[in-house]
Amino acid sequence: MPQRRVLSVVGNPKPNSRTRTVAEAVAARVAAAIPAEGDVVTEVIEVSALGPGLLGWGDPAVKEAVASMRTADALIVATPTFKATYTGLLKLLLDQIGQGELGGVPTVPVLVAGAPEHALAVEVHLRPLLVEIGASCPTRGVFVLDSTLPELPAQLDTWATANLAAITALVESRATVSQDLG
Question: Helix crossing, 152-181 with 18-33: angle to 10°?
């Protein structure tokens, strides 16, 4: 069995943000739940590091990021809330991905917000965008308030109990299909 990989894509303009902290915590939960013969690797793409390459088409670093997203065993897409939705920075990257191009990669949408009024944004705005580009989002997204970050482990325990089985089942079924075809 090849090594499994969980990729976090962080759409915060600020590197090493709270959004990244949440994304990495979700990725760690997903990675720990995926059956594998060896370690499950977690990686992070900070969209802000792609810089001006996001503003045009064909940038090698952006192409590499998209290829990494397509080949991940599981994907965590995290963004802070800007104007009640995902960031324009994240949208610049996701606009580089064609309709259906992710090919069903199991994906967890994650949104970090300053106000509880934005709780639906993860389901109403981020999830449909991810589905449009071919992500498979088999569970509810993760919504975290900035003010509740100290309670993140407990929040993720609750989320994991309700959702991890669906994600790991999808990861396993995709791996089986891949082995059968390969």
Answer: 50
pTM above 0.90, yes or no: yes
- Structural domain spans, the chain: 4-177
Q: How far is 113 from 122, CA to CA, in rounded Å?
A: 10
Q: Please give the CATH number for the structural domain made up of 4-177.
A: 3.40.50.360
The length of the chain in residues reads 182
* Residue written as token pair 């990861």: 171
For the segment 76-135, what is each residue's pLDDT rounded down to a tens digit? Answer: 999 999 889 999 999 999 999 999 999 999 999 999 999 999 999 999 999 999 999 999
Pair of tokens at residue 111: 């949104």
